[in-house]
Amino acid sequence: MKTWFWAIGLGLFVVFLILYFSLNTAGVFTGPAASWTDYGEPPQGGALVKQPISFWTDLAFVIAGLAALVIVDTQKKPHAYLPMRSASPYSVGLGLIMVWMGPGSMLEHGLLLTNWGWADAASIHWFTIFVILYLLMRCVSLTIDVFAGPSHRSLQHGSARRVVEAIVFYVIYFAACALVGALTWDSVPRKDVSIGLMAATGVVYLLAMVPTWVRWAANDRVVWDFVPHFETPWHLIPVICTLVLFGTALVFLFTSAEGGSTAPGGHGVFHVCVASVAFCIFLTLFLEQDKASIRK
Fold first, then answer.
1. Residue 212 buriedness (CB in 10 A; 0-12 / 13-18 / 19+)
2. 188 contact partners, CB below 8 Å, separation of at least 6
3. In this predicted structure, what is the pLDDT of residue 122?
4. CA-to-CA distance for 181 and 122, rounded, in angstroms?
5. Residues 6+ apart with CB under 8 A from 2
6. What's the CA dihedral at 238, 286, 64, 251 to 10 degrees?
């Protein structure tokens, strides 16, 4: 059955833009001013968008999220249980989080207010926590399949077990997001937590790819039952994008603008790179393989 979650994501983004510009025009957004030097783009005083380059390049996150939702909307549900291969609590949830990464960052760069900057960091935290928990959840779910028997491997989203799995996943997810959000609201530096979570996501992601690399390198059909397997070469693209991301960051770091830590527009390039990494991570998770087909 065809779904239209991409339209929901687009509609929510349009609502955000309407609320942002209308409320900003009315002077609703207030708070202590944030420093602009980390972004290398001097603010435009009195404008509704203080840092237009950083603000509008956040559309890369929205585009990435909508593209992910279009992909899952147009897929038929596979016979095997592959949560990201069609519209599910996981694929739709991740796509909507990717869409929200745009507005979250827009609040930071459009307003340049310390309190509203929390939304920018929170959107990164929500994405990274989701990816980490999802990969761990798939390992736990596949381990249960091994002990529960073959009949459990094809249980779909509407079955009692999958519903319980989804509920447990989101309870843990929301609890983790609430904890991190509370800590970064005031007492813990947001940037440090963002870097830490991105690093943790990278480590968990690479570890999750090991079984696929082992099978790929051996050029055989060896399959580890307790972990998911992904199609190649998609799992390599986020690694390449990350290297490009850090390389680009270094280039802009050494060509900094006067008074800023990066060159004008450098943070906008950062947005596009991070959005590309996020989309490629989604593609990797989307292309999880059915182990039965690998063994044939």
1. buried
2. none
3. 93
4. 6
5. 73, 74
6. 0
Q: What is the DSSP string of 35-75?
A: P-GGGT----TT-SSS-HHHHHTTHHHHHHHHHHHHHHHTP
Is residue 269 within 8 A of residue 250, CB to CB? The reply is no
User: Which residues, 6+ apart, have CB-to-CB distance to 18 below 8 Å?
Assistant: none
Structure tokens at 265: 């527009």
- Is pTM beyond 0.85 here? yes
Q: How far apart are CA 216 and CA 224, in angstroms?
A: 13
Q: Report residue 39 CA to chain centroid gap.
A: 21
CA distance 208 to 132: 10
Q: Position 148: which residue type? A: A
Residue-wise pLDDT for 52-74, tens only, equals 988 999 999 999 999 999 999 99
Residue 15: CB atoms within 10 Å? 11
**Spatial separation of the C-alpha atoms in residues 209 and 211, rounded to whole Å:** 6
pLDDT at 21: 95
d(CA 103, CA 105): 5
CB 184 within 8 A of CB 193: yes
> Which H or E element spans position 152?
none
CATH topology of domain 5-24+44-295: Rhopdopsin 7-helix transmembrane proteins (1.20.1070)
Return the number of other C-beta atoms located less than 10 Å from residue 254's C-beta.
9
Work out the number of other CB atoms within 10 angstroms of the CB of residue 64.
25
Q: Are 130 and 96 in contact (CB under 8 A)?
A: no
> Which ranges of the chain does DSSP label H, i.e. alpha helix?
5-25, 52-56, 59-73, 89-111, 118-148, 160-185, 190-218, 237-253, 266-286, 291-295
